[in-house]
UniProtKB/TrEMBL annotation:
It comes from Nonomuraea bangladeshensis. PROSITE patterns: GLYCOSYL_HYDROL_F3. Pfam families: Glyco_hydro_3 (PF00933). Its EC number is 3.2.1.-. Signal peptide: none annotated. This is Glycoside hydrolase family 3 protein. One of its GO terms (molecular function) is hydrolase activity, acting on glycosyl bonds. Keywords: Glycosidase, Hydrolase. SUPFAM superfamilies: (Trans)glycosidases. InterPro entries: GH (IPR017853), Glyco_hydro_3_AS (IPR019800), Glyco_hydro_3_N (IPR001764), Glyco_hydro_3_N_sf (IPR036962), NagZ_Beta-hexosaminidase (IPR050226).
Length: 480
């Protein structure tokens, strides 16, 4: 391979954030980092505990200068606490409190944990304005449905993360909040005019750019007024025209995971890599599915695209320069907090809301109504069981649950029903309604968005299913 060929391959590899299975870095990842690989994205399956993550990131840094990223949003979407649940409430809870200073503190605490583990880019916060209550993928990941509220908390989150030199990656540009389709599965459409887009979806991104956000993540969402039928990730009009031109963003553009069906089932993984680079992306998050053969094929396709004139070589050089500037920023002075921050539980306590008066607990039966996890969240534990050790906890599938049997089991005992996003699941609503009708003294705890609630029964809304949310709900239940 000639020197020019090696240089071109290095530029191509430098645009990729790869993933791998297991808690140790495979040899191929370390080898590619030595040859210019851009970095890695870590997932729950890469995490055992903080000490192991530190060892992993130290090994990665020993091979190169990687961008080391993950999704640590607090709330439902966590990677460091994937196996136990996050100690921080998510954006919906912070939006319900509406104290930007609290949001800044929570994200600074998250940044401290990330920095201590060697993570330098957090794929957070979600700046989506969640105007569609039935949104299957955003929901509690959003600060709320009001653009101004989302904007001020997005800025606070960016400031909190970046105060400890963990780069924020504000997502999902130009907005995933008004959708009813999960872009992991298909291409959602936000069919609004430019005036609505600017006033609603773009407001938090504009504020984040002004606040100095280091990176922005693209959405695999079509906005016909801007992108036509294409997702924004593949659209020069969205990434170069709107984000770079109109909003004036000069940081690193990161793609959402390219292994999502919105890309793989439309233009393919390697084809999508070339198209998003041409559109203006700088770092390509490949997601958890591609293996080393896929990574090699993507690099080869990017190199071929440059040689064949389908992708300008200058685009790769521009991406490399932006990522190099980000790496330089990572290396600046950082003042780490002296002690562990307990702001997560404090924030969850401020967010929890109670309607009605719960009955005192007597040999409680807790019925947790199961909700299928989204792909973004994954199989993160949730529920109140750890905080109610005296309770009998039953986890049920709503469509298969026998309300009569549950009521018989609860006879002479307190009944607590825990749900998550009941408004999105008719079977959950039917089961809760049946239990509450027979037992008006039931307490219902909603750990998703509190859009639907039964006509009677005491009702606790947590605005998220993180570990901190659950503890705050139980404390309120026990003291009310």
């Amino acid at each position: 391979m000639s020197q020019s060929d090696r240089g071109l391959r290095r530029l191509a590899a430098g645009t990729l954030l790869v993933a791998f299975q297991g808690t140790e870095a495979p040899d191929w990842v370390l080898r590619e980092l030595e040859h210019g690989l851009g970095g890695v994205t870590l997932f729950g399956f890469n995490v055992a505990d903080h000490g192991q993550v530190r060892e992993l990131t130290t090994a990665l840094r020993g091979a190169g200068e990687p961008v080391i990223s993950l999704d640590e949003e607090g709330g439902d979407v966590t990677r460091l606490a994937y196996h136990v649940g996050s100690p921080y409430p998510g954006n919906a809870a912070l939006g319900a409190v509406d104290d930007p200073g609290l949001t800044r503190s929570v994200y600074r605490a998250i940044a401290a944990e990330l920095a201590s583990c060697g993570i330098n880019l957090d794929m957070a916060p979600s700046a989506d304005v969640n105007t569609e209550a039935d949104n299957p993928v955003i929901g509690t990941r959003s600060f709320g449905a009001d653009a101004a509220l989302v904007a001020r908390h997005t800025v606070a989150a960016v400031e909190g993360l970046q105060s400890l030199r963990v780069a924020a990656c504000v997502k999902h540009f130009p907005g995933h909040g008004a959708t009813r389709v999960d872009s992991h599965l298909a291409i959602p459409v936000v069919d609004v005019g430019l005036d609505v887009l600017r006033e609603r979806e773009l407001a938090p991104f504009r504020a984040a750019v002004t606040a100095g956000a280091k990176s922005v993540m693209t959405a695999h969402v079509a906005v016909p007024a801007v992108t036509g039928d294409s997702p924004a990730t593949l659209s020069g009009a969205a990434l170069t025209g709107l984000l770079r031109g109109e909003l004036g963003f000069d940081g690193v553009v990161v793609t959402d995971a390219l292994d999502m069906h919105a890309i793989t089932r439309s233009v393919g993984l390697a084809g999508g890599a070339v198209l998003t680079l041409a559109a203006g992306a700088d770092l390509l998050c490949l997601g958890p599915l591609p293996v080393y053969d896929d990574v090699q094929a993507i690099i080869a396709e990017i190199v071929s695209a440059v040689r064949e004139g389908r992708l300008a070589g200058e685009r790769l050089e521009e991406a490399a320069a932006r990522v190099a500037a980000l790496r330089e920023w990572f290396g600046g002075d950082r003042e780490m907090p002296a002690e562990r921050n307990v702001v997560g539980l404090h924030a969850a306590r401020r967010a929890v809301r109670l309607s009605g008066v719960p009955e005192p607990l007597v040999e409680p039966l807790v019925v947790e109504v199961d909700t299928p996890p989204t792909i973004a969240v994954g199989d993160v534990p949730w529920g109140v069981g750890p905080w109610l050790p005296e309770a009998e906890v039953v986890r049920v599938e709503p469509s298969a649950a026998d309300a009569s049997a549950l009521l018989a089991k609860a006879a002479g005992r307190s009944l607590v029903v825990v749900v998550k996003d009941a408004h999105r699941h008719p079977a959950s609503r039917d089961l809760v309604s049946a239990l509450v009708t027979a037992r008006p003294d039931t307490t219902v705890i909603e750990m998703g968005l509190p859009v639907w609630r039964p006509d009677s029964a005491a009702y606790i809304a947590t605005y998220g299913a993180a570990r901190a949310n659950a503890q705050a709900a139980v404390e309120l239940l026990q003291t009310a």
